[in-house]
Recover the amino acids of this structure.
């Protein structure tokens, strides 16, 4: 079974190489950029300006293969891929919650970007914390790396 | 530009019709089901059992068209699609954070399911609140519907 998607726009960021990038949006508060939405989808942006944060789903377009066990940036041990946010996934879909600064026609100005320049955008959803709010959360191996995602930069292990 | 994905598994839920379903996982705490991961991806599930909650990205397989302005379940006013979680999207990718109960080989037992039975799974990511944690969040039109996502059920407006 094949599922075919077409980008709704393009994410423009300052990053042209996967090395030395922020590994999560919370480590990219200073990173601003623009998202260009294709004209045909502009009407769907109505009401989005009331939200301070939005969820971006995008295609990790430089990924050409996957690895089921990886050593993530936040660890020194091999971990199962699906317990990590590593980019080389069977379906390389990226997820980032970013801050929406303003909307001008079909251009979204945002901060907290942690993806490559030219990344094809698949979907935007409003970020509503109560939709995903849980108590008693266990975060597995990431527990040992608590707080480090903000400062850690990427290297080229997933090139 | 076409992006082609292949499901990594299938989500089995009690829901065979889009009517009268929970509209968000937080309204589906009692809804349990199983996710069957394809054998070839089983190795990637290592270490996932340490996490209490996981992010599912899936293909809304019954969606055959999109609408750029919709009246969402939580409102009576038309809203831009991208400011809603409505399913009829240009790229119909669903996102749900669900509770992971246990893993038995390639089967994940989970609760908080809010998607149709037979939904093709695209990706699993670990749910780590600090990766998406922000302060001063504004939730636009959803502000008027605060707390209602837990009880609201779907109707057939997006059939």
């Amino acid at each position: 079974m094949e599922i075919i998607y077409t980008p709704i726009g393009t994410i423009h960021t300052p990053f042209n190489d996967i090395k030395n990038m922020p590994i999560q949006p919370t480590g990219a508060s200073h990173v601003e950029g623009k998202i260009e939405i294709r004209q045909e989808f502009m009407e769907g942006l109505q009401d989005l300006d009331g939200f301070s944060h939005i969820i971006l789903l995008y295609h990790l377009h430089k990924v050409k293969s996957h690895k089921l066990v990886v050593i993530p940036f936040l660890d020194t041990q091999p971990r199962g891929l699906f317990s990590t946010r590593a980019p080389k996934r069977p379906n390389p879909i990226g997820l980032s919650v970013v801050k929406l600064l303003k909307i001008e026609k079909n251009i979204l100005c945002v901060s907290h970007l942690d993806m490559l320049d030219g990344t094809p955008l698949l979907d935007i959803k409003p970020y509503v914390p109560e939709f995903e709010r849980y108590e008693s959360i266990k975060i597995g191996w990431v527990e040992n790396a608590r707080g480090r995602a903000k400062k850690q930069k990427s290297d080229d292990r997933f090139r």
